[in-house]
Design a protein that fits this description.
Layout (H helix, E strand, L loop, with lengths): L14 E5 L2 H4 L12 H6 L21 H11 L3 E5 L2 H4 L10 H16 L3 E7 L5 H4 L9 H16 L5 E6 L1 H10 L13 H28 L2 E7 L2 E4 L5 H24 L5 H13 L25 E4 L3 E6 L9 H5 L1 E4 L16 H14 L5 E5 L13 H19 L5 E7 L18 E3 L8 E3 L1 H14 L3
Parallel strand pairs: 1-2, 1-11, 2-3, 3-4, 4-5, 5-7, 6-8, 7-10, 10-11
Antiparallel strand pairs: 8-9, 12-13
Helix pairs in contact: 7-9, 8-9, 13-14, 14-15
């Protein structure tokens, strides 16, 4: 990596990581006692995924963990974020049946990481919900909060002697909108205007129960930290002089980040503006059912304060303007009433939705500091995609990591944001949900046409490793 004038500076104990998710890398979808998950079901339906690809094999990490570990060590990561497959541990989703082979697999991964001085960060739920629970109502069911709490307790009891960083749920906003409103993610439902809010509510209930279980039962002995991973773009008004655009940008931030961050980090309830907006639209369309945005019960563990740090997944930014929508339709588009626009000056990498805006991350980090009481922040996902022919010398992506980490450094040093670590998405090229294998985010290329699934470091992986190495010289 060539010397540059804008050298980023990081705290002594800054965390350097990369992230993966079980369904996207493990494969072995029906081996060794694993139960089916909603992504197994979703991908096996024709027409859902790019070229009808599936995660049945993916990177074959269930059988090739040693190769993944070598990649982690080549990068000199201090931390590795991975997720548990809920149905690999509990095939029917409950502790009525524990799959010991699944337990053994994750024990091996955790032990190997620690033996090599790499700290694991574990996500309990990263989109791959057990199909047996989905058949019983899934996240729409009020009972799911207690079932998730039971699963979480099992994981704390089984692995918590070694795991000290936990995430309960990854990107609940994406799960709700893309899985239950738009239907392009599993379970593929399009129950417009209502179900997404119910699902999000039950996810927050489940998270809060799990946090309080950890706090009261396990924390004193295990000494770990627990949060949930929230995704957000940065949004700015297209025309800062237009009050409607300014309001639209605020509404975007409220519905995307505030939906889950406000209850956990700020007030214990949904944003006032969000509830008012939903009630306004409900009245406008003549909806007379139960309130679409539920209320938290005082009889349950409080959601406020149920996080020991702020975990942020950031990928892109948007300019936002107000946009009229029909008030005869009940859906989240009507609730938002805005249009998201990519600024022409922003380069787009790979997929059309991903504009490269490193400075947007800095602005978002400052917003979180001000809006959510200056929490300790881990950036748990951030990455740059590649499509089309494989480019091993991915110079643009290498520059992306440098530019992004410079912005993170400025957020720390100039803005006073308490950022504890950075996790690149992703360690490996993998199954990217509805895009299948057509989109590549890896620091390592995986040759899916070769039955040995060789992993080869991209130029960008070498750039990231060099940044880590330079930082570690001062730690």
């Amino acid at each position: 990596m060539s010397s540059r004038s804008d050298e980023p500076v990081f705290p002594r104990h800054f965390v350097w990581g990369a992230s993966t998710a079980a369904y996207q890398i493990e494969g072995a979808w029906n081996e060794d006692g694993k139960g089916p998950g909603i992504w197994d079901t979703f991908c096996h339906r024709k027409g859902r995924i790019f070229e009808d690809q599936t995660g049945d094999v993916a990177c074959n990490s269930y059988h090739l963990w040693e190769k993944d570990l070598k990649c982690i060590l080549q990068l000199r990561l201090t931390h590795y974020r991975l997720s548990f497959s809920w149905s690999r541990l509990l095939p029917n989703g409950t502790t009525d049946h524990i799959n010991e082979k699944g337990v053994a697999y994750y024990n091996r991964v955790i032990d190997d990481l620690l033996a090599n001085h790499v700290t694991p960060m574990i996500t309990l739920y990263h989109f791959d919900f057990p199909q047996s629970l989905q058949d019983r109502g899934g996240w729409k069911s009020a009972d799911i909060a207690d079932i998730f709490d039971s699963y979480a307790r099992f994981c704390f009891q089984t692995f918590g002697d070694r795991v000290k960083l936990w995430l309960t749920i990854n990107e609940p906003q994406i799960c709700c909108t893309m899985g239950y409103e738009e239907g392009i993610f599993a379970p593929g439902l399009q129950e417009l205007g209502t179900t997404a809010y119910v699902v999000g509510h039950n996810m927050l209930r489940a998270h809060a129960k799990a946090w309080h279980s950890y706090n009261t039962i396990f924390r004193k002995q295990q000494g770990g930290l627990l949060s949930l991973a929230l995704n957000s773009d940065w949004a700015e008004p297209l025309n800062p002089s237009n009050p409607d655009d300014v309001s639209a940008a605020k509404r975007h931030r409220t519905f995307e980040l505030g939906w889950f961050a406000c209850p956990v980090f700020s007030t214990g309830d949904y944003p006032v503006a969000m509830r008012a907006r939903i009630e306004e639209i409900s009245k406008a369309v003549g909806y007379d059912g139960a309130p679409r945005l539920p209320r938290f019960s005082e009889d349950e563990p409080p959601v406020l304060g149920s996080a020991d740090f702020f975990a942020l997944n950031y990928y892109t930014s948007r300019k936002v303007r107000a946009a009229g929508t029909s008030h005869r339709e009940l859906n989240m588009k009507t609730d938002l009433e805005l249009e998201r626009i990519i600024d022409p000056s922003w380069p787009v990498c790979g997929v059309k939705w991903l504009a490269v805006v490193p400075e947007g991350l800095r602005k978002l980090l400052k917003h979180i500091k001000v809006e959510y009481n200056n929490p300790a922040i881990y950036i748990t996902e951030n990455g740059f995609s590649q499509i089309g022919p494989v480019e091993m010398e991915d110079i643009q992506r290498g520059r992306f990591y440098w530019d992004t980490l410079c912005q993170v450094s400025k957020a720390i040093c100039e803005d006073g944001v308490d950022i504890r670590g950075y996790f690149a998405w992703s360690l490996l090229d993998n199954f990217e949900w509805s895009d299948g294998f057509s989109v590549r985010f890896g620091l390592f290329h995986v040759d899916f046409s070769n039955e040995e699934f060789p992993r080869t470091m991209y130029h960008s992986g070498k750039e990231y490793a060099a940044i880590i190495s330079k930082n570690c010289q001062h730690s």
